[in-house]
Amino acid sequence: MSIFSPLCNDIVDFGSHNSNARKNSTYNPSGKVVKITPHHMGMVCDAKRCAQAHMNGNANSANYYIGNDGRICGGVSEDRRPWTSGSRENDFLAITIEVSNSAKGDPWPVSDAAFSALVRLCVDICKRNGITALNYTGNANGNLTRHNMFQKTACPGPYLQGKFPELQKLVNAQLSPQPASDERKIWDYLLARIGNEYGVAGLMGNLRGESRLQPNNLQDSFEPRLGMNDEQYTAAVDSGAYTYDQFIHDGAGYGLAQWTFWSRKSNLYNRRNGKSIADLDMQLDFLWWELSTGYTTTLQALRTATSVYNASTAVLTQYEKPANQSEAVRLKRAEYGEEYFRKYAQGTEVYPLCPYVARITATELNVRSGPGPNYPIVRTVVQREAFTIVDRVGDWGKLKSGVGYINLQYTEPV
Ligand SMILES: [Zn+2]
């Protein structure tokens, strides 16, 4: 049975035509795929048509074809050696990919759609064949190789060849995603300084809402506008190709807290000290510096919070201040925060995490305008009525309607 990537839009299965069994006692005794060799077609073509042209001839083949529109077509099964690079030594070990050009002639450009399909396909090939990373050495010893390493040819053309380092980087970034331990690291860092698990969970829920907890996160809406993804933007800032002035004045949110305003981005930039702008430790130190110097009211709210919701809302309205601060956004961020609370908090809980539904157990219970017995009574509720509690101060729970607070000792969670 032939083996193809699930990313294929079409398949023109070559069978045994223009190919050999990959397992070969001289060139590949294990039969494993260990290299990838991207080629250019030397013309503008769609994937399936190029595959069919090779299938109809008796000289060429490749494992995959990528069209100018980014569609992918399977050709020679992965467990077979294609005839692509003019090198037995290479092609018995390699998956080969023919990529359409977007125009004929030097520098043989390739469309963004085709290049991003190439990145996705390489990631998939690596994952399924146990290749842990691409290593582009610029010679045949690496596992990302070029046709012109083996034959006198223009292939893969100056444009695509120039993008091999970027291809390596983008593929490897997807093969080794952010370590999960970052979440724990952020929790521990903040808990050591804030000292209140509700506060830490509320802050982390907001950071997740802002950046998915990724320190290299560029505000999503700016990616198409700037023509860069998270990795490309970060690399450009780190190398200086994207200047300090561009970085602070582009209006794009960046980093753990999606810092946007020019003076905050400027302060972040000036803290790098030789590190990447996406360095997690550096960003945590910066976050802490901001909270402990410029946002002391927010910090106090985090230190004294008695629920995740109340901590989370303080961060949302005083520190992050996104355009949308609706109740829906508040509840979503508190919900993220509660996930972290459940995962990492050690403190035992008398009441469920807010928001939750409480049912009245007393025959009659007063609703007061504030969280304590001295606040005026605004109405009374009766046994078996149920209310969503969105915040808690000690034993007092705030009703979602905003009418007031009830004493939770006379309720039970539903
Ligand atoms: Zn080639």
Briefly say what this structure is:
The protein is of the alpha+beta class and 414 residues long. The chain is built from 15 helices and 14 strands. It starts with 9 loop residues before the first strand and ends with a strand.
Structure overview:
There is one protein chain. By secondary structure, the chain is of the alpha+beta class. It folds into three domains: 10-175, Peptidoglycan recognition protein-like (Lysozyme-like); 181-344, Lysozyme (Orthogonal Bundle); 356-413, Roll (SH3 type barrels). It has 15 helices and 14 strands. The protein has helices at 47-56, 88-91, 112-129, 157-162, 164-175, 181-194, 197-211, 222-226, 230-239, 244-249, 262-269, 280-293, 296-304, 308-320, 327-344; strands at 10-11, 19-21, 35-40, 64-66, 72-74, 80-82, 94-99, 356-360, 364-368, 377-382, 386-393, 396-399, 405-407, 411-413. The strands form four sheets. It has a five-stranded mixed β-sheet. A hairpin with an 8-residue loop joins strand 9 and strand 10. The longest helix is centred in the first third of the chain and has 18 residues, at 112-129. It binds zinc ion.
SSE order in H/E notation? EEEHEEEHEHHHHHHHHHHHHHEEEEEEE
Number of helices: 15
| Strands, count | 14
What is the H level of CATH, i.e. the homologous superfamily of the largest domain? Peptidoglycan recognition protein-like
Strand order of the largest sheet: 1-5-4-7-3
The parts where pLDDT drops under 50 for at least 5 residues are none
The rounded distance between the terminal residues' Cα atoms is: 55 Å
In helices, the fraction of residues equals 25-40%
| Average of the residue pLDDT scores | 93
Strand content: 5-15%
What's the main sheet like?
5 strands, mixed
- CATH architect. name of the largest domain: 3-Layer(aba) Sandwich
Computed Rg = 29 Å
Shape assignment: elongated
CATH domain class name of the largest domain: Alpha Beta
Small ligands present:
zinc ion
Q: What structural category do the secondary elements indicate?
A: alpha+beta
Number of domains: 3
Return the CATH topology of the largest domain. Lysozyme-like
